[in-house]
Amino acid sequence: NAGVTQTPKFQVLKTGQSMTLQCAQDMNHEYMSWYRQDPGMGLRLIHYSVGAGITDQGEVPNGYNVSRSTTEDFPLRLLSAAPSQTSVYFCASSYRSGLYNEQFFGPGTRLTVL
Amino acid sequence: GNSVTQMEGPVTLSEEAFLTINCTYTATGYPSLFWYVQYPGEGLQLLLKATKADDKGSNKGFEATYRKETTSFHLEKGSVQVSDSAVYFCALASGGSNYKLTFGKGTLLTVNP
Predict the structure, then answer these.
(1) pLDDT digit string (tens) for chain A, length 114 residues
(2) CA 20 to 30 Å from A14, out of A21, A59, A80, B95?
(3) Which chain B positions have a beta carbon within 8 Å of A58's beta carbon?
(4) Residues 79-98 of B with CB under 8 A from A
(5) Which of A41, A43, A74 to probe the B interface (max B CBs under 10 A)?
(6) Across the interface, do A58 and B100 touch by the CB < 8 Å criterion?
(7) Is the peptide bond preceding residue B40 cis, with omega within 30 degrees of 0?
């Protein structure tokens, strides 16, 4: 199993550009989520999904869109990038059954918005 | 709302020293508590967890005990190694929702030989 994969690893954007961060998992996990990691802020939840076709907002959703058309993929879209979105983005997934299952994290995407 | 407070770093220790990283929380109900570790350039990995009061989570020589009376989940290791150098995050999940983790700000640990 590849686990949770994210592409690209690094990206530089100009203010106003749009892009999609890709996330895929091959563990048949129902739950998937996106976090951003900023210095001194820990990880903050952006959006999450409990299954294909179901998404919801986390703590910091503004400026980001998500969709979940398949169990495997959970892309994160930046519609009009802003310097405040410079961050490291992590995708995570876990099983749905049972409580408090371990979340598996991808290696991250480091995004810089100029 | 839920919140997690970790001791601020960075923490620098010599090899074989004793490690404590403090973590306290505020949550509704009875949360589950976690420690995640992030090695340089990598994503987060679950280090240990505890799902009810007085549970002790342990892994790779690290331990943490769920203390409901003090709302704490301090991470300890008796003898750290250079390979333990990483960022450690305390986190909680409550209300039966494992996908909604609330993280502390993280503590950078550097272990020198």
Answers:
(1) 789 999 999 999 999 999 999 999 999 999 999 999 998 888 999 999 999 999 999 989 999 999 999 999 999 999 999 999 999 999 999 887 556 678 899 999 999 999
(2) A59
(3) 100
(4) 89, 93, 96, 98
(5) A43
(6) yes
(7) no
Which residue type occupies B69?
A: E
CB distance B82 to B60 below 8 Å = no
Report the run of H or E that residue B46 belongs to, with start and end.
strand B44-50
DSSP letter, residue A101? P
Please enumerate in sequence order all residues whose Cβ is within 8 A of that of A104, keeping only pairs 6 or more positions apart, or say none: A3, A4, A25, A27, A29, A92, A93, A94
The encoded tokens of residue A13 equal 């954007």
Is-contact B33 B50, C-beta < 8 A? yes
User: Hey, CA dihedral for A111, A84, B94, B76, is it positive or negative?
Assistant: positive
Tokens of A31: 């739950």
One-letter amino acid at A53 equals G
